[in-house]
UniProtKB/TrEMBL annotation:
InterPro entries: GH, GH13_cat_dom, O16G_dom_2. Keywords: Glycosidase, Hydrolase. It comes from Bowdeniella nasicola. It comes from the Bacteria. This is Oligo-1,6-glucosidase. GO terms for biological process: oligosaccharide catabolic process. Belongs to the glycosyl hydrolase 13 family. Residues 14-426 form the Glycosyl hydrolase family 13 catalytic domain.
Length: 562
Protein backbone atom coordinates (compact mmCIF):
# COMPACT_ATOMS: atom_id res chain seq x y z
CA UNK A 1 0.00 0.00 0.00
CA UNK A 2 1.10 3.60 -0.44
CA UNK A 3 2.85 4.47 2.83
CA UNK A 4 2.64 8.19 2.11
CA UNK A 5 -1.02 8.67 3.00
CA UNK A 6 -1.54 11.16 5.82
CA UNK A 7 -2.94 8.55 8.22
CA UNK A 8 -0.17 5.94 7.87
CA UNK A 9 1.86 6.91 10.94
CA UNK A 10 -1.11 8.03 13.04
CA UNK A 11 -2.91 6.36 15.92
CA UNK A 12 -6.72 6.59 16.03
CA UNK A 13 -8.54 7.40 19.29
CA UNK A 14 -12.14 6.25 19.61
CA UNK A 15 -14.50 8.50 21.57
CA UNK A 16 -17.84 7.10 22.80
CA UNK A 17 -19.48 10.55 23.20
CA UNK A 18 -22.13 9.38 25.67
CA UNK A 19 -19.43 8.53 28.20
CA UNK A 20 -16.54 10.88 27.41
CA UNK A 21 -17.29 14.28 29.01
CA UNK A 22 -20.58 15.90 30.12
CA UNK A 23 -20.52 19.71 29.90
CA UNK A 24 -24.08 20.50 31.07
CA UNK A 25 -24.60 18.22 34.05
CA UNK A 26 -27.31 16.00 32.57
CA UNK A 27 -25.09 12.94 33.14
CA UNK A 28 -24.64 12.26 29.43
CA UNK A 29 -21.44 13.12 27.55
CA UNK A 30 -21.74 15.71 24.78
CA UNK A 31 -19.84 17.56 22.03
CA UNK A 32 -19.03 20.58 24.20
CA UNK A 33 -17.48 18.16 26.71
CA UNK A 34 -15.23 16.80 23.95
CA UNK A 35 -14.29 20.34 22.84
CA UNK A 36 -13.23 21.07 26.42
CA UNK A 37 -11.01 17.96 26.38
CA UNK A 38 -9.26 18.14 23.01
CA UNK A 39 -6.00 19.03 24.74
CA UNK A 40 -6.04 15.61 26.40
CA UNK A 41 -6.03 14.12 22.90
CA UNK A 42 -3.28 16.47 21.72
CA UNK A 43 -1.18 15.57 24.80
CA UNK A 44 -1.62 11.87 24.07
CA UNK A 45 -0.48 12.54 20.50
CA UNK A 46 -3.27 10.77 18.61
CA UNK A 47 -3.66 11.83 14.99
CA UNK A 48 -7.28 10.85 14.35
CA UNK A 49 -10.48 10.77 16.40
CA UNK A 50 -13.24 8.27 15.52
CA UNK A 51 -16.50 9.51 17.00
CA UNK A 52 -19.19 6.94 17.79
CA UNK A 53 -22.63 8.13 16.52
CA UNK A 54 -23.88 11.59 17.55
CA UNK A 55 -26.78 11.73 15.05
CA UNK A 56 -30.48 12.09 15.90
CA UNK A 57 -31.51 8.78 17.46
CA UNK A 58 -34.04 7.32 19.91
CA UNK A 59 -30.94 5.80 21.59
CA UNK A 60 -32.32 2.23 21.57
CA UNK A 61 -28.82 0.97 20.80
CA UNK A 62 -27.03 4.08 22.09
CA UNK A 63 -27.09 5.90 18.76
CA UNK A 64 -26.46 2.96 16.42
CA UNK A 65 -30.14 3.40 15.53
CA UNK A 66 -30.25 6.61 13.52
CA UNK A 67 -33.42 8.60 12.78
CA UNK A 68 -31.75 11.52 10.91
CA UNK A 69 -28.26 11.12 9.43
CA UNK A 70 -27.78 14.86 8.95
CA UNK A 71 -28.78 16.13 12.38
CA UNK A 72 -26.93 16.09 15.70
CA UNK A 73 -28.96 14.53 18.50
CA UNK A 74 -29.87 17.36 20.93
CA UNK A 75 -28.45 15.23 23.75
CA UNK A 76 -25.00 15.74 22.22
CA UNK A 77 -25.47 19.33 21.01
CA UNK A 78 -25.86 21.15 17.69
CA UNK A 79 -24.26 21.25 14.25
CA UNK A 80 -22.57 24.49 15.38
CA UNK A 81 -20.97 22.54 18.27
CA UNK A 82 -19.94 19.91 15.73
CA UNK A 83 -18.31 22.48 13.44
CA UNK A 84 -16.48 23.93 16.47
CA UNK A 85 -15.19 20.45 17.38
CA UNK A 86 -13.93 19.85 13.82
CA UNK A 87 -12.10 23.18 13.92
CA UNK A 88 -10.62 22.48 17.37
CA UNK A 89 -9.33 19.09 16.24
CA UNK A 90 -7.98 20.33 12.88
CA UNK A 91 -6.17 23.17 14.67
CA UNK A 92 -4.25 20.47 16.54
CA UNK A 93 -3.64 18.44 13.38
CA UNK A 94 -6.10 15.82 14.58
CA UNK A 95 -8.45 14.49 11.89
CA UNK A 96 -12.08 13.44 12.48
CA UNK A 97 -13.66 10.15 11.32
CA UNK A 98 -17.41 9.70 11.77
CA UNK A 99 -19.31 6.48 12.48
CA UNK A 100 -21.34 5.44 9.40
CA UNK A 101 -24.27 3.20 10.36
CA UNK A 102 -25.98 2.28 7.10
CA UNK A 103 -26.75 -1.42 7.30
CA UNK A 104 -29.86 -0.31 9.18
CA UNK A 105 -31.64 2.83 10.38
CA UNK A 106 -33.84 3.49 13.39
CA UNK A 107 -37.49 2.43 12.96
CA UNK A 108 -38.19 6.11 13.67
CA UNK A 109 -36.27 7.29 10.59
CA UNK A 110 -38.73 8.95 8.11
CA UNK A 111 -37.56 6.48 5.46
CA UNK A 112 -38.79 3.55 7.55
CA UNK A 113 -41.95 5.33 8.72
CA UNK A 114 -42.85 5.81 5.04
CA UNK A 115 -41.80 2.25 4.12
CA UNK A 116 -43.98 0.84 6.92
CA UNK A 117 -46.99 2.96 5.87
CA UNK A 118 -48.17 0.22 3.52
CA UNK A 119 -47.25 -2.33 0.86
CA UNK A 120 -47.77 0.31 -1.86
CA UNK A 121 -45.42 2.84 -0.21
CA UNK A 122 -42.80 4.31 -2.58
CA UNK A 123 -40.21 3.38 0.03
CA UNK A 124 -41.49 -0.15 0.72
CA UNK A 125 -38.44 -1.58 -1.08
CA UNK A 126 -36.00 0.57 0.91
CA UNK A 127 -36.20 -2.07 3.63
CA UNK A 128 -36.53 -5.86 3.66
CA UNK A 129 -40.18 -6.93 3.97
CA UNK A 130 -41.28 -10.55 3.54
CA UNK A 131 -44.57 -12.49 3.82
CA UNK A 132 -44.92 -14.94 6.68
CA UNK A 133 -44.44 -18.63 5.99
CA UNK A 134 -47.74 -20.46 5.26
CA UNK A 135 -48.01 -21.29 8.99
CA UNK A 136 -47.61 -17.57 9.79
CA UNK A 137 -44.09 -17.92 11.21
CA UNK A 138 -41.01 -15.82 10.41
CA UNK A 139 -39.59 -16.00 6.85
CA UNK A 140 -36.41 -17.75 8.11
CA UNK A 141 -34.72 -19.05 11.25
CA UNK A 142 -32.17 -16.29 11.93
CA UNK A 143 -31.25 -15.27 15.49
CA UNK A 144 -30.75 -11.54 16.11
CA UNK A 145 -27.44 -10.29 17.55
CA UNK A 146 -29.67 -8.96 20.33
CA UNK A 147 -31.57 -12.23 20.93
CA UNK A 148 -34.83 -13.40 19.42
CA UNK A 149 -35.90 -13.64 15.77
CA UNK A 150 -34.57 -11.10 13.23
CA UNK A 151 -38.14 -10.54 11.99
CA UNK A 152 -40.75 -8.13 13.42
CA UNK A 153 -44.35 -8.66 12.31
CA UNK A 154 -46.31 -5.61 11.09
CA UNK A 155 -50.03 -6.26 11.67
CA UNK A 156 -51.20 -3.53 9.30
CA UNK A 157 -49.53 -4.99 6.20
CA UNK A 158 -49.34 -8.62 7.34
CA UNK A 159 -45.61 -8.73 6.55
CA UNK A 160 -42.40 -9.04 8.59
CA UNK A 161 -39.42 -6.69 8.31
CA UNK A 162 -35.81 -7.79 8.81
CA UNK A 163 -33.64 -6.50 11.67
CA UNK A 164 -30.35 -8.26 12.36
CA UNK A 165 -30.01 -6.17 15.51
CA UNK A 166 -32.81 -4.76 17.63
CA UNK A 167 -36.40 -4.59 16.30
CA UNK A 168 -35.88 -0.81 16.32
CA UNK A 169 -33.01 -1.21 13.81
CA UNK A 170 -34.63 -2.33 10.50
CA UNK A 171 -32.10 -3.40 7.84
CA UNK A 172 -31.90 -1.21 4.74
CA UNK A 173 -32.25 -2.91 1.36
CA UNK A 174 -28.91 -2.32 -0.35
CA UNK A 175 -30.16 -4.07 -3.48
CA UNK A 176 -32.18 -0.89 -4.10
CA UNK A 177 -30.02 1.68 -5.97
CA UNK A 178 -32.15 4.53 -4.54
CA UNK A 179 -31.06 3.48 -1.03
CA UNK A 180 -27.41 3.45 -2.06
CA UNK A 181 -27.60 6.84 -3.77
CA UNK A 182 -29.32 8.40 -0.73
CA UNK A 183 -26.53 7.06 1.49
CA UNK A 184 -23.79 8.30 -0.82
CA UNK A 185 -25.37 11.78 -0.90
CA UNK A 186 -25.43 11.82 2.90
CA UNK A 187 -21.79 10.76 3.08
CA UNK A 188 -20.72 13.53 0.68
CA UNK A 189 -22.65 16.02 2.84
CA UNK A 190 -20.45 15.11 5.81
CA UNK A 191 -17.23 15.24 3.78
CA UNK A 192 -18.32 18.67 2.57
CA UNK A 193 -18.50 19.61 6.27
CA UNK A 194 -14.83 18.79 6.78
CA UNK A 195 -15.01 15.20 7.99
CA UNK A 196 -11.89 13.18 7.16
CA UNK A 197 -13.38 9.72 6.79
CA UNK A 198 -15.72 7.05 8.18
CA UNK A 199 -15.78 3.95 10.35
CA UNK A 200 -18.42 1.82 8.67
CA UNK A 201 -20.67 -0.11 11.04
CA UNK A 202 -21.16 -3.82 10.12
CA UNK A 203 -20.53 -2.83 6.52
CA UNK A 204 -19.96 -6.46 5.47
CA UNK A 205 -23.57 -7.34 6.31
CA UNK A 206 -25.16 -5.07 3.68
CA UNK A 207 -25.25 -7.62 0.84
CA UNK A 208 -27.56 -10.50 1.74
CA UNK A 209 -27.75 -13.78 -0.23
CA UNK A 210 -30.92 -13.87 -2.37
CA UNK A 211 -33.72 -15.86 -0.78
CA UNK A 212 -32.40 -15.12 2.71
CA UNK A 213 -31.84 -18.84 3.40
CA UNK A 214 -31.97 -20.38 6.87
CA UNK A 215 -28.66 -20.56 8.72
CA UNK A 216 -27.10 -23.39 10.73
CA UNK A 217 -28.93 -23.76 14.04
CA UNK A 218 -27.05 -22.43 17.08
CA UNK A 219 -27.33 -22.92 20.86
CA UNK A 220 -30.57 -20.92 21.11
CA UNK A 221 -32.35 -23.08 18.54
CA UNK A 222 -32.40 -20.36 15.92
CA UNK A 223 -30.01 -20.06 12.98
CA UNK A 224 -26.95 -17.88 12.35
CA UNK A 225 -27.37 -15.05 9.84
CA UNK A 226 -23.63 -14.87 9.13
CA UNK A 227 -23.60 -17.45 6.33
CA UNK A 228 -26.20 -15.50 4.35
CA UNK A 229 -25.34 -11.94 5.40
CA UNK A 230 -21.60 -11.63 6.04
CA UNK A 231 -19.30 -10.86 3.10
CA UNK A 232 -22.25 -11.40 0.73
CA UNK A 233 -22.33 -11.65 -3.09
CA UNK A 234 -22.26 -7.87 -3.78
CA UNK A 235 -20.26 -6.74 -0.71
CA UNK A 236 -17.10 -5.74 -2.60
CA UNK A 237 -19.15 -4.32 -5.48
CA UNK A 238 -20.99 -2.00 -3.09
CA UNK A 239 -17.77 -0.88 -1.38
CA UNK A 240 -16.19 -0.08 -4.76
CA UNK A 241 -19.31 1.80 -5.86
CA UNK A 242 -19.27 3.77 -2.59
CA UNK A 243 -15.61 4.65 -3.19
CA UNK A 244 -16.39 5.93 -6.70
CA UNK A 245 -19.54 7.82 -5.75
CA UNK A 246 -18.25 9.37 -2.53
CA UNK A 247 -14.49 9.52 -2.08
CA UNK A 248 -13.53 9.91 -5.75
CA UNK A 249 -15.78 12.98 -5.79
CA UNK A 250 -12.95 14.77 -3.93
CA UNK A 251 -9.83 13.98 -6.01
CA UNK A 252 -7.74 16.55 -4.10
CA UNK A 253 -8.42 14.99 -0.69
CA UNK A 254 -7.56 11.63 0.86
CA UNK A 255 -9.69 10.08 3.58
CA UNK A 256 -9.40 7.37 6.21
CA UNK A 257 -11.99 4.60 5.87
CA UNK A 258 -12.27 1.54 8.12
CA UNK A 259 -14.95 -1.11 7.68
CA UNK A 260 -16.28 -2.91 10.74
CA UNK A 261 -16.65 -6.44 9.44
CA UNK A 262 -17.70 -9.06 12.00
CA UNK A 263 -17.16 -12.57 10.65
CA UNK A 264 -14.77 -11.51 7.89
CA UNK A 265 -11.92 -13.83 6.89
CA UNK A 266 -8.43 -13.04 5.67
CA UNK A 267 -9.25 -13.29 1.98
CA UNK A 268 -12.12 -10.79 2.09
CA UNK A 269 -10.16 -8.50 4.43
CA UNK A 270 -7.25 -8.50 2.01
CA UNK A 271 -9.59 -7.58 -0.85
CA UNK A 272 -11.12 -4.76 1.20
CA UNK A 273 -7.79 -3.13 2.05
CA UNK A 274 -5.88 -3.70 -1.20
CA UNK A 275 -5.43 -0.09 -2.43
CA UNK A 276 -5.65 -1.24 -6.06
CA UNK A 277 -9.26 -2.26 -5.45
CA UNK A 278 -10.24 1.18 -4.05
CA UNK A 279 -12.70 -0.17 -1.45
CA UNK A 280 -11.64 0.81 2.11
CA UNK A 281 -8.25 1.37 3.77
CA UNK A 282 -8.62 -1.35 6.41
CA UNK A 283 -11.19 -3.37 8.36
CA UNK A 284 -11.87 -4.36 11.97
CA UNK A 285 -11.77 -8.15 11.87
CA UNK A 286 -13.03 -10.15 14.88
CA UNK A 287 -10.99 -13.36 15.02
CA UNK A 288 -8.80 -12.39 18.01
CA UNK A 289 -11.76 -11.07 20.01
CA UNK A 290 -13.62 -14.28 19.22
CA UNK A 291 -10.93 -16.63 20.58
CA UNK A 292 -12.49 -16.61 24.07
CA UNK A 293 -16.11 -16.57 22.85
CA UNK A 294 -18.49 -19.41 22.12
CA UNK A 295 -19.82 -18.96 18.59
CA UNK A 296 -23.53 -18.16 18.75
CA UNK A 297 -23.51 -17.48 22.48
CA UNK A 298 -20.95 -14.84 23.54
CA UNK A 299 -22.25 -14.82 27.11
CA UNK A 300 -21.93 -18.58 27.59
CA UNK A 301 -20.40 -19.28 30.99
CA UNK A 302 -18.13 -22.03 29.64
CA UNK A 303 -15.47 -20.44 27.48
CA UNK A 304 -12.75 -21.81 25.18
CA UNK A 305 -9.47 -21.90 27.11
CA UNK A 306 -7.82 -18.88 25.45
CA UNK A 307 -4.17 -18.18 26.23
CA UNK A 308 -2.10 -15.18 25.29
CA UNK A 309 -0.12 -17.43 22.95
CA UNK A 310 -3.31 -17.90 20.94
CA UNK A 311 -3.78 -14.13 20.80
CA UNK A 312 -0.17 -13.58 19.65
CA UNK A 313 -0.51 -16.36 17.09
CA UNK A 314 -3.73 -14.97 15.65
CA UNK A 315 -2.33 -11.44 15.35
CA UNK A 316 0.72 -12.90 13.61
CA UNK A 317 -1.47 -14.88 11.19
CA UNK A 318 -3.19 -11.63 10.17
CA UNK A 319 0.19 -9.89 9.77
CA UNK A 320 1.24 -12.70 7.46
CA UNK A 321 -2.08 -12.75 5.61
CA UNK A 322 -2.23 -9.00 4.93
CA UNK A 323 1.47 -8.91 4.03
CA UNK A 324 2.67 -5.98 1.93
CA UNK A 325 -0.61 -5.45 0.03
CA UNK A 326 -3.28 -5.32 2.75
CA UNK A 327 -3.38 -3.25 5.92
CA UNK A 328 -4.40 -4.32 9.43
CA UNK A 329 -6.33 -2.34 11.98
CA UNK A 330 -4.82 -3.07 15.41
CA UNK A 331 -7.31 -3.00 18.28
CA UNK A 332 -8.01 -4.70 21.59
CA UNK A 333 -10.79 -2.42 22.83
CA UNK A 334 -13.83 -0.50 21.64
CA UNK A 335 -17.37 0.24 22.90
CA UNK A 336 -18.39 -3.38 22.22
CA UNK A 337 -15.44 -5.17 23.82
CA UNK A 338 -14.46 -5.67 27.47
CA UNK A 339 -11.37 -3.90 28.86
CA UNK A 340 -8.18 -5.65 27.72
CA UNK A 341 -6.48 -5.44 31.13
CA UNK A 342 -9.34 -7.50 32.59
CA UNK A 343 -9.61 -9.82 29.60
CA UNK A 344 -5.95 -10.56 28.82
CA UNK A 345 -3.89 -8.59 31.37
CA UNK A 346 -3.77 -8.74 35.17
CA UNK A 347 -6.37 -6.79 37.19
CA UNK A 348 -4.51 -7.04 40.51
CA UNK A 349 -3.66 -3.58 41.83
CA UNK A 350 0.10 -4.23 41.68
CA UNK A 351 0.00 -5.51 38.09
CA UNK A 352 -2.84 -3.79 36.23
CA UNK A 353 -0.87 -0.71 35.07
CA UNK A 354 2.11 -2.86 34.06
CA UNK A 355 -0.11 -5.26 32.13
CA UNK A 356 -1.87 -2.32 30.42
CA UNK A 357 1.52 -1.11 29.15
CA UNK A 358 2.64 -4.59 28.12
CA UNK A 359 -0.57 -5.18 26.13
CA UNK A 360 -0.22 -1.74 24.48
CA UNK A 361 3.40 -2.41 23.56
CA UNK A 362 2.44 -5.80 22.14
CA UNK A 363 -0.36 -4.43 19.96
CA UNK A 364 1.49 -1.36 18.67
CA UNK A 365 4.51 -3.48 17.65
CA UNK A 366 2.47 -4.88 14.76
CA UNK A 367 2.17 -3.49 11.22
CA UNK A 368 -1.08 -1.58 10.81
CA UNK A 369 -3.07 1.28 12.33
CA UNK A 370 -3.43 1.13 16.13
CA UNK A 371 -6.72 2.17 17.76
CA UNK A 372 -6.90 3.44 21.34
CA UNK A 373 -10.37 3.36 22.91
CA UNK A 374 -11.21 6.06 25.47
CA UNK A 375 -9.86 5.03 28.87
CA UNK A 376 -7.55 2.38 27.45
CA UNK A 377 -4.75 4.96 27.69
CA UNK A 378 -5.39 4.97 31.46
CA UNK A 379 -5.63 1.20 31.87
CA UNK A 380 -9.33 1.24 32.79
CA UNK A 381 -10.75 -2.15 33.80
CA UNK A 382 -14.09 -4.02 33.68
CA UNK A 383 -17.01 -3.19 35.96
CA UNK A 384 -17.56 -5.32 39.09
CA UNK A 385 -21.38 -5.36 38.85
CA UNK A 386 -23.48 -8.22 40.21
CA UNK A 387 -27.05 -6.88 39.81
CA UNK A 388 -29.09 -6.89 36.58
CA UNK A 389 -30.34 -3.39 37.46
CA UNK A 390 -26.80 -2.04 37.04
CA UNK A 391 -26.65 -2.96 33.34
CA UNK A 392 -27.95 -0.71 30.56
CA UNK A 393 -26.89 -2.47 27.34
CA UNK A 394 -29.85 -3.92 25.47
CA UNK A 395 -27.60 -6.78 24.32
CA UNK A 396 -27.44 -7.88 27.97
CA UNK A 397 -31.04 -7.05 28.88
CA UNK A 398 -32.47 -8.88 25.83
CA UNK A 399 -30.20 -11.87 26.45
CA UNK A 400 -31.24 -12.21 30.10
CA UNK A 401 -34.94 -11.94 29.14
CA UNK A 402 -34.56 -14.57 26.41
CA UNK A 403 -32.76 -16.99 28.74
CA UNK A 404 -35.28 -16.31 31.55
CA UNK A 405 -37.98 -17.53 29.19
CA UNK A 406 -35.97 -20.78 29.08
CA UNK A 407 -35.91 -20.91 32.87
CA UNK A 408 -32.33 -19.75 33.33
CA UNK A 409 -31.60 -17.28 36.14
CA UNK A 410 -29.53 -14.09 35.97
CA UNK A 411 -27.29 -15.43 38.74
CA UNK A 412 -26.41 -18.41 36.54
CA UNK A 413 -25.66 -16.15 33.56
CA UNK A 414 -23.69 -13.49 35.47
CA UNK A 415 -20.20 -14.99 35.17
CA UNK A 416 -20.42 -15.12 31.35
CA UNK A 417 -22.05 -11.68 31.16
CA UNK A 418 -19.54 -10.09 33.54
CA UNK A 419 -16.59 -11.14 31.39
CA UNK A 420 -17.63 -9.68 28.01
CA UNK A 421 -20.63 -7.36 28.39
CA UNK A 422 -20.37 -4.07 26.51
CA UNK A 423 -21.10 -1.88 29.55
CA UNK A 424 -17.60 -2.85 30.70
CA UNK A 425 -16.34 -0.35 28.10
CA UNK A 426 -19.11 2.23 28.42
CA UNK A 427 -18.75 3.51 31.97
CA UNK A 428 -17.84 7.21 32.10
CA UNK A 429 -14.32 8.31 31.26
CA UNK A 430 -12.30 8.70 34.43
CA UNK A 431 -10.76 12.22 34.46
CA UNK A 432 -10.11 12.61 38.21
CA UNK A 433 -10.89 11.11 41.62
CA UNK A 434 -13.72 13.62 42.27
CA UNK A 435 -17.21 12.15 42.94
CA UNK A 436 -18.28 12.36 39.26
CA UNK A 437 -14.75 11.43 38.13
CA UNK A 438 -14.62 14.80 36.36
CA UNK A 439 -17.04 13.30 33.81
CA UNK A 440 -20.18 14.95 35.16
CA UNK A 441 -21.49 17.13 37.97
CA UNK A 442 -24.81 15.29 37.65
CA UNK A 443 -26.00 11.68 37.87
CA UNK A 444 -24.12 9.69 35.17
CA UNK A 445 -26.34 7.75 32.74
CA UNK A 446 -24.30 4.64 33.58
CA UNK A 447 -22.61 4.17 36.95
CA UNK A 448 -18.95 5.06 37.30
CA UNK A 449 -16.50 2.22 37.75
CA UNK A 450 -15.51 2.37 41.46
CA UNK A 451 -11.88 2.00 40.31
CA UNK A 452 -12.15 5.60 39.04
CA UNK A 453 -10.74 6.75 42.38
CA UNK A 454 -7.40 5.13 41.58
CA UNK A 455 -7.47 4.98 37.77
CA UNK A 456 -7.92 8.49 36.28
CA UNK A 457 -6.21 11.00 33.98
CA UNK A 458 -5.36 13.46 36.75
CA UNK A 459 -3.24 10.80 38.43
CA UNK A 460 -1.42 9.89 35.23
CA UNK A 461 -0.95 12.79 32.78
CA UNK A 462 2.56 14.11 33.30
CA UNK A 463 3.35 11.36 35.82
CA UNK A 464 6.40 9.32 34.81
CA UNK A 465 5.76 5.59 34.58
CA UNK A 466 1.98 5.98 34.18
CA UNK A 467 -0.01 4.11 31.54
CA UNK A 468 -0.86 7.45 29.91
CA UNK A 469 2.78 8.50 29.64
CA UNK A 470 3.70 5.11 28.17
CA UNK A 471 0.99 5.52 25.50
CA UNK A 472 2.29 9.03 24.77
CA UNK A 473 5.79 7.62 24.13
CA UNK A 474 4.44 4.69 22.14
CA UNK A 475 2.34 6.95 19.87
CA UNK A 476 5.23 9.40 19.36
CA UNK A 477 7.56 6.54 18.45
CA UNK A 478 5.34 5.62 15.51
CA UNK A 479 6.05 9.01 13.97
CA UNK A 480 9.80 8.74 14.63
CA UNK A 481 10.52 5.19 13.46
CA UNK A 482 9.64 4.31 9.85
CA UNK A 483 10.35 0.66 10.70
CA UNK A 484 7.37 0.66 13.07
CA UNK A 485 5.03 1.82 10.28
CA UNK A 486 6.53 0.18 7.22
CA UNK A 487 8.57 -2.72 8.59
CA UNK A 488 7.66 -6.30 7.72
CA UNK A 489 6.73 -8.61 10.58
CA UNK A 490 8.21 -11.78 12.02
CA UNK A 491 6.93 -13.53 15.14
CA UNK A 492 10.02 -14.87 16.90
CA UNK A 493 8.28 -16.43 19.90
CA UNK A 494 4.53 -16.79 20.39
CA UNK A 495 4.90 -18.96 23.47
CA UNK A 496 4.02 -16.69 26.33
CA UNK A 497 2.94 -18.61 29.34
CA UNK A 498 3.11 -22.35 29.82
CA UNK A 499 2.27 -24.29 32.96
CA UNK A 500 5.88 -24.76 34.06
CA UNK A 501 7.38 -21.35 33.37
CA UNK A 502 6.57 -18.21 31.40
CA UNK A 503 8.56 -17.41 28.27
CA UNK A 504 9.12 -14.12 26.48
CA UNK A 505 6.99 -12.91 23.53
CA UNK A 506 9.18 -11.57 20.76
CA UNK A 507 8.61 -10.03 17.34
CA UNK A 508 10.91 -8.40 14.81
CA UNK A 509 10.20 -5.67 12.28
CA UNK A 510 12.59 -4.93 9.41
CA UNK A 511 12.65 -1.96 7.04
CA UNK A 512 15.46 -0.72 4.79
CA UNK A 513 18.18 -2.29 6.88
CA UNK A 514 16.82 -1.10 10.24
CA UNK A 515 15.40 -3.62 12.70
CA UNK A 516 13.08 -3.24 15.66
CA UNK A 517 12.65 -6.07 18.16
CA UNK A 518 9.76 -5.98 20.62
CA UNK A 519 9.93 -8.18 23.71
CA UNK A 520 7.27 -8.65 26.36
CA UNK A 521 6.63 -10.74 29.44
CA UNK A 522 2.96 -11.59 30.00
CA UNK A 523 3.37 -13.05 33.48
CA UNK A 524 4.34 -11.90 36.98
CA UNK A 525 7.58 -13.90 37.04
CA UNK A 526 10.87 -12.51 35.69
CA UNK A 527 11.84 -14.17 32.42
CA UNK A 528 15.18 -14.51 30.66
CA UNK A 529 15.65 -13.02 27.24
CA UNK A 530 17.52 -15.43 24.96
CA UNK A 531 20.76 -13.87 23.67
CA UNK A 532 19.71 -14.00 20.03
CA UNK A 533 16.83 -11.62 20.61
CA UNK A 534 18.87 -8.85 22.22
CA UNK A 535 21.63 -8.14 19.64
CA UNK A 536 24.84 -6.59 20.95
CA UNK A 537 24.68 -2.81 20.65
CA UNK A 538 20.90 -2.74 20.47
CA UNK A 539 19.40 0.59 21.59
CA UNK A 540 16.42 0.57 23.95
CA UNK A 541 13.93 2.94 22.26
CA UNK A 542 11.02 2.17 24.58
CA UNK A 543 10.66 0.37 27.88
CA UNK A 544 7.77 0.18 30.34
CA UNK A 545 10.22 0.29 33.27
CA UNK A 546 13.98 0.17 33.89
CA UNK A 547 15.42 -2.79 32.02
CA UNK A 548 18.62 -4.79 32.19
CA UNK A 549 19.71 -6.77 29.14
CA UNK A 550 18.87 -10.40 29.29
CA UNK A 551 15.88 -10.21 31.58
CA UNK A 552 12.30 -8.90 31.62
CA UNK A 553 10.45 -8.29 34.87
CA UNK A 554 6.79 -9.16 35.36
CA UNK A 555 4.54 -7.65 32.61
CA UNK A 556 7.43 -5.62 31.18
CA UNK A 557 7.71 -4.65 27.52
CA UNK A 558 10.78 -3.34 25.68
CA UNK A 559 11.45 -2.16 22.09
CA UNK A 560 15.02 -2.44 20.77
CA UNK A 561 16.39 -0.77 17.65
CA UNK A 562 19.42 -2.31 15.91
O1 LIG B 1 -21.38 -3.91 16.22
C1 LIG B 1 -21.43 -4.95 15.27
C2 LIG B 1 -21.05 -6.19 15.88
O2 LIG B 1 -20.14 -6.87 15.50
C3 LIG B 1 -21.89 -6.57 17.03
O3 LIG B 1 -22.72 -7.64 16.59
C4 LIG B 1 -21.01 -7.00 18.13
O4 LIG B 1 -20.53 -8.28 17.79
C5 LIG B 1 -21.84 -6.98 19.36
O5 LIG B 1 -22.09 -5.65 19.58
C6 LIG B 1 -21.10 -7.63 20.47
O6 LIG B 1 -21.50 -8.95 20.45
C7 LIG B 1 -21.78 -2.67 15.64
C8 LIG B 1 -21.62 -1.58 16.69
O7 LIG B 1 -20.24 -1.47 17.03
C9 LIG B 1 -22.45 -1.98 17.87
O8 LIG B 1 -22.26 -1.07 18.96
C10 LIG B 1 -23.89 -1.95 17.44
O9 LIG B 1 -24.70 -2.43 18.51
C11 LIG B 1 -24.12 -2.87 16.22
O10 LIG B 1 -23.12 -2.75 15.21
C12 LIG B 1 -25.44 -2.50 15.56
O11 LIG B 1 -25.30 -1.23 14.97
CA1 LIG C 1 -24.47 16.41 28.69
Amino acid sequence: PQLDQWWRDRVVYQIYPRSFADSNGDGIGDLRGIIERVDHLAELGVGVVWLSPIYASPQDDNGYDISDYQAIDPTFGTLADFDELVAALHERDIRLVMDLVVNHTSDEHPWFVESASGRESAKRDWYIWRDPKPDGSEPNNWESFFSGPTWQFDEASGQYYLHLFSRKQPDLNWENPQVRQAIYAMMRWWLQRGVDGFRMDVINLISKVKGLPDGPVGPTGRGSCFEACANGPRFHEFLAEMHREVFDAYPDRTFLTVGETPGIGLDDALKCSDPARREVDMVFQFEHVGLDNNPGDKFAVERPDMRLADLAGNLAAWQEGMGEVGWNSLYFENHDQPRSVSRWGDEAEEWRAKSAKALAGMLHAHRGTPYVYQGQELGMINVPWTKLSEFRDLEVLNYVAARAAEGRSFAELLPGIARVNRDNARTPMQWSDEPGAGFTTGEPWLALNPAAREINAAAQVGVAGSVFEFYRELIALRRELPVLVAGDFELLSPALIDAERPTVWAVRRTFEGEQLTALANFSREDVDIPEQWWPAGAEVVLTSEDVTAGQLRGWQVVYLRH
